[in-house]
Amino acid sequence: MNVRRCLTVASLAGISAFLSAAHAEQGVVPIEFPSTLSDGDACAMFGLSETQLHELQSRLHLTNVQLLRMGPHMVAKSLDRLTMPEADEPEEAMEWRFRQRAGADGTIPRDAILIAKAQRDALIANNAVIEGAGPQWEWLGPGNIGGRTRSILINPDNPDVMYAGSVGGGVWKTTTGGSDWTPLTDFIASIAIGCMAMDPNDPDTIYVGTGEGFFNSDAIPGAGIFRTIDGGATFTQIQATNTANFEFVNRIAFAPGSSTTMLVATNNGIFRSTNAGQSFTQVNATRTLDVEYSPIDSMRAVAGQGNNAAWSNDGGVTWNVAAGGAGGGRVEVAMAPSNPATVYASVQDFGVFRSVDHGQTYALIGSQFYMGDQGWYDNAIWIDPMDSETVIVGGIDLWRTRDAGGDWTQMSMWQFAPDSAHADHHYIIEHPQFNGTTNRVVYFANDGGLYRTNNVYSAVDTNGWQSLNNNYGVTQFYGGGGNPLGFGTLVGGTQDNGTIVYRGSTAQWIRMFGGDGGFAQADQNQLQFLYGETQWARVNRSDDVGDTAASIYFPSLTDANPGTTNFISPIRLDPNGNNRLYVGCSRLWRTNNARTETGDGWTVVHEDVGSNHSAIAIAQGNPDLIWVGHGNGDVYRTLNGTSANPIWQRMDQNAPGLPNRFVTSIAIEPDDHNRVWVTFSGFVDNNVRFSDDGGATWQIRSGSPAAHLPALPVNSVCVDPEVDQRIFVGTDLGVFVSEDDGMTWTTDNVGPANTVVDELFFNTMAGMKYVIAVTHGRGMYRLSLSETFTTPADLNEDGVVNGSDLAILLAGWGGPFGDVNGDGITNGQDLAALLASWG
Fold this sequence. Notes:
The chain is mainly beta.
């Protein structure tokens, strides 16, 4: 059927049935929707109260007509998630990361990460580590999720060669047009990539700006500009940028046709170089987010600054503030390649402005509808190289005009990603051979990674979009957990991309629920139960291994709000075969029935002591022994943790005392509960502490002078349950291991090297023991620690193949659970293998 349909407000009574039928038909042309829809009609159509409608409008940043375009099913689904935020909170996330790592004076030293990297390099050299000689890390993905990306470059001579700059995962390269990606294993992988620029005359020479200056003033700084001259094989820091002026490099622009003259936009103003970065001159002192040269005239340039647009007609030597109101917040600018006198500016909280005099004066042509209230964070603009009246602006979603702002069409709907482009857009670039006719390809960088459309003029909603997150592994996890049953399920909470689940396939992680994910846990005895949280301790549970999830914190967990908990709050399941779940806010909360909790059963078991809980540990074999840590360095222990009112004893003041820094993790050794490890954040020395007498005294375990941990945050500690004295720690520069109780440490340059590792834990997967590394920028990794120590048919790991294993296999029939032979599906072959191992 190929019929053009038209909806009018008069036909509201039949809209739901109509939409269902229309979406089900094959070959139906796009529906023509009404231009307006009143709140009353929308409420009547979808069966919503006015409060529910307004909540949907606010949270989804959609009008009633846009809700109509979603269709009844998606509106109902969104309504179900009103208490489960879908959009992330980028400012709070960045403040949280900063507060974790700041020193006692509230700052992070400018060169702290570089100093720590030099110490790490010395450790590797001192210990003569042979790369790849030890156990090998295996990347587990996610290969289909992506992460926050602020820049894309395309080789004009070979467009299949592309580069992407991730905020947490460094620079990546593809030689296949995005069908697969490879990380460029250089130190910059652990620094926030804010921008990139390609030499106009040499596509193998690339400049990479670090530091993400688009956030609040607490954003973590970078280390200037790095350069590669060999297509990313090696990078070196440009020494002239190793100063405080280049902590936040937001944009790099070359003069047209020049390999030596460039402008750099930073939080400290605009800097100009005429010798390819050997030296720079500051030409403007205003915080600048964007700078662009005219594509044909090296004398003309424009800039988007913190509160205004600016222009230059002498090659960027001097700058003038533009007239016409293009200011008041973050400004992004773009010059029309087909008519450089035409300049567009996207202004936070105001909208789209247009100039026809090289950016000297502007006029408003569109409101800030596409940015919501976060144009300081996601704000992108692109002009068609062939047509100066075709413009795309990106904020939460993408919008397109073909008549210089007369009419706007919404191109993407983030709720449908990856079938539509993900939310929060940062950069847009066309294919080098874009001509508006035979080539209409445009690429988009956003919080979900990388997307492409083959026809930028027709892409709309879920039509015409393609995700390029094909092993583009830059997902930023906060925490994770694992289930040893079957092949070993993993669950983790991410920044920007919700809580996601691994069920055996690196390229097919599934989304359990949205928002900014946090810590996560997996039931050790029943594989279907997974737990996670959105920001502010809003705990959720899945009863079906991540296919769906429901809130379990409301109404009784009353600390689950800003001000009474950390942005990311610790959650821990009791490992002792029951379903107690603890959540650390200003107070410590517990439910004794996590598998059936609906939100009414939470109770307080540790009162507010003046600093939010930041770490929880429960002893294996003794559920009454619980340790907790706080953001100010306080550490407490209870010996009767399962009681209604546990008695707590402060432990951090025992000789010689523990640091007054953020407690990141606590580990109680499973075979000797008097042995306790505590780790701390901060770019300082001695962030690993140990007690062998239950906390009565403390020792520093940062290693010997020749085998010492660098001075950087230690985010997680885990103790090998089978190998005495083997300790792993996750840091802001990868994983370190000690084989002698922390007396000496070593690391290597494989796996999650140079990457922030937020959590480590042990898990059994298909009969093998692994340590899992949860990274903030490179996904998850696993490291095999033993040969197979049980038959794969022993699905519940109890040492015998019997009816319990058969029940697991049958429950997973047709899917990945119960997969004995490792082919990814549970079927008759697995049943035969299990029966052959019976008893």
